[in-house]
Amino acid sequence: MRLERGLIVSCQARADNPLHGPRFMGAMALAARDGGAVGIRANGPEDIAAVRAAGLPVIGIHKVFSDDYPVYITPDFAAAQAIVAAGAEVVALDCTPRPRDGESPAVLVRRIREELGAEVFADISTLDEGLAAADWGATYVATTLSGYTEATRPKPAGPDLALLEGLARRLSVPVIAEGRFNTPALVRRGFEAGAHAVVVGTMITNPREITRMFIAEGVPR
Ligand SMILES: CC(=O)N[C@H](C=O)[C@@H](O)[C@H](O)[C@H](O)COP(=O)(O)O
């Protein structure tokens, strides 16, 4: 198991974000490391190669968007292969049963472990999806997609602590808390609910979104 108990920082910025690109995401990863993170989550081969400079385990994802199906987090084997080649030791992928254009997540989990020799981080949205992913051989199961699937909408304001607790009670693989852990107190509650590690993205690495949150609270502008 590559991921230690602790805080994992997600360093991601989409193409429309002024901080998009490996230079900025690499710097974010160094800052997160210096602040005490035990791992980095990053998107796409370029950013993954850049965040490796922090010397922490990298959970790689490869977001590939399609008009034809809803799955976008590492939707197929080629996407996984590209991020492992860029240096991800752990591959995160959508393990929901939603339609996709290719192999099932069960097959992908096996192939990523056997053919790429990488650990698998299962992004799921419900207890049943988490139990299934662990059965397929996922190394970690994470609450990442809670609030983002038909089964779990509308998205609540806070993290899905009930799902986290349920997974931690039922699974022997490490359970990771991810999604809307926006304060240190919530992160602590994640560990109390049984998380092995907690992933924080937006509130650490997305200054545009953080600024919007301040403005939304009625700040004059
Ligand atoms: C649903 C989805 O696509 N989640 C993505 C997964 O990589 C990221 O956009 C999130 O920022 C990440 O999960 C961390 O969550 P938060 O930013 O809430 O701390």
TrEMBL record:
Q: What is its EC number?
A: 5.1.3.9
UniProt xrefs under CDD domains: NanE
**Molecular function in Gene Ontology:** N-acylglucosamine-6-phosphate 2-epimerase activity
Keywords on record: Carbohydrate metabolism, Isomerase
- Which SUPFAM superfamilies does its entry note? Ribulose-phoshate binding barrel
Catalytic EC class: isomerase
Give the signal sequence positions. Answer: none
Give the pathway listed in the UniProt entry for this protein: Amino-sugar metabolism; N-acetylneuraminate degradation; D-fructose 6-phosphate from N-acetylneuraminate: step 3/5
Under catalytic activity, the entry for this protein gives: an N-acyl-D-glucosamine 6-phosphate = an N-acyl-D-mannosamine 6-phosphate
Pfam families xref list: NanE
Entry function: Converts N-acetylmannosamine-6-phosphate (ManNAc-6-P) to N-acetylglucosamine-6-phosphate (GlcNAc-6-P).
Query: Which PANTHER family does this one have?
Result: N-ACETYLMANNOSAMINE-6-PHOSPHATE 2-EPIMERASE-RELATED (PTHR36204:SF1)
Q: What is this protein called?
A: N-acylglucosamine-6-phosphate 2-epimerase
